[in-house]
Design goal:
Layout lengths: L1 H31 L1 H10 L2 E10 L2 E2 L10 E8 L7 H12 L3 H8 L6 E4 L12 E8 L8 H4 L8 H5 L1 H4 E11 L13 E5 L6 E4 L3 H13 L4 E7 L5 E7 L33 H10 L8 E4 L2 E4 L2 E4 L7 E4 H6 L3 H11 L1 H10 L27 H6 L9 H12 L3 E2 L5 E5 L5 E4 L6 E2 L3 H16 L15 E10 L4 E10 L6 E7 L5 H16 L3
Parallel strand pairs: 2-8
Antiparallel strand pairs: 1-6, 3-4, 3-5, 6-7, 8-16, 9-10, 9-21, 11-14, 12-13, 15-18, 16-17, 19-20, 20-21
Length: 535
């Protein structure tokens, strides 16, 4: 009897332990690990397809993005979920404006999913296995700063190329489709979602100002300019805008590969003969090395002969007896060739290099560094070409703006920069990019004189830059670089700063094969200056 009672008691204990164990297990599964197993159950009904790799964005100085600004709607179809492919093909062909037979053929493929761009919206309910998603577009039809931002694809260009490893985060976006056990409907509350991997995405912060860049590009497009424009912050050297024309479509690179219209050339950092804007350098050297003073006078007969080579003023105009300030305002070639002879080519070349011509400033995009003649090439008539910015003298529009900025900054050069930092998605700086040290090019006294001379170009009744005057007060220098004397073709230049009293922006304008600087480039300077001063 005792053995029987013992066995019953033992069984009761065992059953109690098993019951408690079962209760605990159920509690553990349903309460403690409930979310985990629910997620696992759902995941068994997920179809996941990778659709794109997330790329870091490129921002302006105020964290306004230049990339991924717009979204485009796409329709996705999962062939294995479609019970009636012919019906699905008809729906898709109407929305995507495609041939129904071609769509049906793609739906019968072995692909995990098929993607189509939405052309027409439909209010009809889409069959199970077809859904819409809006995806970010790297570039849009209104993308700005294309020659700076560049593009990414089989080939790369611009900042997209330079910072490719940083921007290429490898973060993946996938379509997650949550279906029921029969694949006939979506799970309520889940349906189709965009899944993103947790990898870090880094971006690039530039010095560009989105609004200033837009204003500059609008002016160039409105005036159908073939050329470039650059805007610099005088106090920092930051490139606020850099635009080149003609432009190109970042989403259709193939269309320009055989073009001869120079769409891919960033003219803002390409070299061209500067013409008379180089007289800024001549005047700086003459004043800084005490070779010429403001009271010295020169006689202009309209032409000047050096060893049988005759240099002409524009249209052979004679300016009579004038000093350097007047000669600068009316852009007298004869006067500046004489000033160049007095100053000496060695001093002029040294001054040009101090201003940054032939210096690599380390910009993160391909940049030409300008070109100056050898000293031996400036002997005889060579000094004539040097003094009026012709011959072997080549500069970029960026360098032209840099020279104007240095003068406006009282002789101190802030080396131009384009990118300031690598940032995370919150805008926090992960790595700050250093800028080259500023340095003095000319004395403050010389800079003040040059600022006054550049002002005279705009306000003198005979000044070549009258059309550059703004309500804020402009200062600058025109340039008309001769391309073909026979065909009367010139590259038009204007480089200067605004406002005159408290300089803020340095702006250079270059118009390829345009006209004279005063006729074509100066009005563009005015238009851009008036627009950006609003900001």
């Amino acid at each position: 009897m005792e053995n029987r009672n013992y066995r019953i008691a033992f069984l009761r204990v065992v059953l109690s332990i098993l019951t408690l164990t079962l209760i605990f297990r159920l509690f553990y599964i349903q309460v403690i690990k409930g979310d985990f197993y629910s997620q696992k159950a759902v995941e068994q009904k997920i179809r996941s397809f990778k659709i794109l790799e997330r790329r870091g964005e490129i921002y302006d100085r105020n964290m306004i993005p230049f990339t991924d600004r717009e979204y485009k709607e796409y329709i996705f179809a999962i062939p294995k979920m479609l019970t009636d492919k012919e019906k699905a093909a008809k729906v898709i062909s109407e929305i995507a404006a495609l041939n129904c037979e071609d769509v049906l053929k793609s739906l019968k493929s072995a692909k995990d999913y098929v993607e189509y761009e939405v052309k027409f919206n439909s209010n009809n309910k889409l069959p199970i296995g077809i859904f819409k998603l809006a995806l970010p577009q790297r570039y849009s039809q209104n993308s700005l700063a294309r020659h700076v931002i560049g593009y990414v694809g089989e080939k790369k260009m611009g900042l997209e190329d330079t910072f490719n490893e940083i921007l290429n985060s490898k973060r993946e976006d996938s379509i997650a489709v949550f279906t029921d056990g029969n694949n006939t409907d979506y799970i309520k509350g889940l349906g189709v979602r965009l899944k993103t991997s947790g990898k870090e995405v880094l971006g690039v912060k530039t010095t560009l100002d989105y609004h200033i860049q837009k204003a500059v590009e609008n002016v160039l497009d409105k005036n159908m300019v073939d050329g470039a424009a650059v805007v610099l912050d005088i106090k920092t050297g930051d490139i606020l805008a850099m635009a080149s024309r003609p432009n190109f479509d970042q989403n259709n690179i193939q269309a320009y590969l055989n073009s001869s219209n120079e769409e891919f050339i960033n003219k803002a950092v390409s070299m061209y003969p500067p013409g008379s804007i180089f007289k800024i350098v001549i005047a700086a050297a003459a004043l800084e090395y005490n070779k010429v003073n403001l009271q010295d006078t020169f006689y202009c007969s309209g032409s000047y002969d050096i060893n049988g080579i005759v240099f002409h003023d524009y249209k052979g105009e004679s300016h009579g007896v004038i000093n350097m300030v007047k000669g600068f305002a009316v852009s007298c070639n004869t006067t500046f060739i004489k000033i160049g002879q007095i100053t000496g080519a060695k001093n002029i070349l040294e001054m040009a290099r101090k201003f940054g011509i032939e210096s690599d400033d380390g910009l993160p995009i391909p940049e030409r560094i300008g070109r100056l003649p050898k000293l031996s090439d400036t002997y005889g008539a060579g000094i004539g070409n040097l003094s009026i910015g012709q011959g072997d003298v080549l500069m970029t529009p960026l360098q032209a703006a840099d020279i104007a900025a240095t003068i406006a900054n009282n002789g101190v050069r802030n080396v131009p920069r384009l990118v300031t930092a690598i940032i995370d998605e919150e805008g926090k700086e992960i790595e700050k990019l250093s800028q080259k040290k500023s340095y003095r090019v000319i004395s403050e006294k010389t800079a003040i004189i040059l600022k006054g001379m550049m002002r005279e170009v705009v306000i003198d009744p005979e000044g070549t830059g009258k059309r550059a005057e703004t309500t804020y007060g402009s200062a600058g220098k025109t340039g008309s670089a001769e391309v073909s004397k026979e065909l009367n073709i010139y590259h038009a230049w204007f480089t200067g700063f605004v406002p005159f009293d408290k300089p803020k922006y340095a702006i250079s304008i270059f118009v390829k094969n345009g006209d004279t600087g005063g006729t074509k480039a100066a009005p563009l300077f005015k238009e851009i200056a008036e627009e950006i001063m609003k900001y």
